[in-house]
């Protein structure tokens, strides 16, 4: 099982929109160029990902001047597993991709182990929302800001 850049970049881009689109009470669309610059993801790659995310209803596009993308639903309703599924990312840990034909059309000896792992991964990703990631990022930012404001104290050991 390997989560490719497609899944990682899609989650990163969705989190970027969640963190940057809310400006006070106003929700402002985020351009793919802004995401590309901040996250160092190719613009053409983002365009491909966002076509899929839009089809799933995870983002909505705003046309015209000041246009871009907004999240398609509240951040506490967007599970990471939904994003992964939207970009057609396969996260199954089985060699046969869950079909049970691992070994010459037969189920391999360890199929149930890897199938169970796949279910655990899916449950884990479906149990985390963009809201959870936003909260963690905000906590990190607040801690960094606090630490940056604290003067360093040199402690000598006698």
TrEMBL record:
This is BadM/Rrf2 family transcriptional regulator. Keywords: DNA-binding. The lineage of its organism: Bacteria, Pseudomonadati, Pseudomonadota, Gammaproteobacteria, Pasteurellales. The keyword DNA-binding applies. It comes from Testudinibacter aquarius. The keyword DNA-binding applies. GO terms for molecular function: DNA-binding transcription factor activity; double-stranded DNA binding. One of its GO terms (cellular component) is cytosol. Pfam families: Rrf2. PROSITE patterns: HTH_RRF2_1, HTH_RRF2_2.
């Amino acid at each position: 099982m390997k989560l490719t850049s497609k899944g990682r970049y899609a989650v990163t881009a969705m989190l970027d929109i969640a963190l940057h689109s809310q400006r006070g009470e106003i929700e402002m669309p985020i351009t793919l160029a802004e995401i590309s610059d901040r996250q160092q993801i190719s613009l053409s790659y983002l365009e491909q990902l966002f076509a899929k995310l839009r089809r799933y209803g995870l983002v909505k596009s705003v046309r015209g001047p000041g246009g871009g993308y907004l999240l398609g639903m509240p951040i506490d309703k967007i599970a990471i597993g939904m994003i992964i599924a939207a970009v057609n990312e396969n996260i199954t840990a089985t060699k046969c991709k869950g079909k049970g034909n691992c070994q010459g059309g037969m189920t391999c000896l360890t199929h149930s182990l890897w199938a169970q792992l796949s279910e655990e991964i899916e449950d884990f990703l479906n149990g985390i929302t963009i809201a959870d990631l936003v909260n963690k990022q905000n906590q990190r930012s607040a801690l960094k800001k606090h630490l940056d404001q604290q003067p360093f104290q040199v402690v000598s050991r006698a």
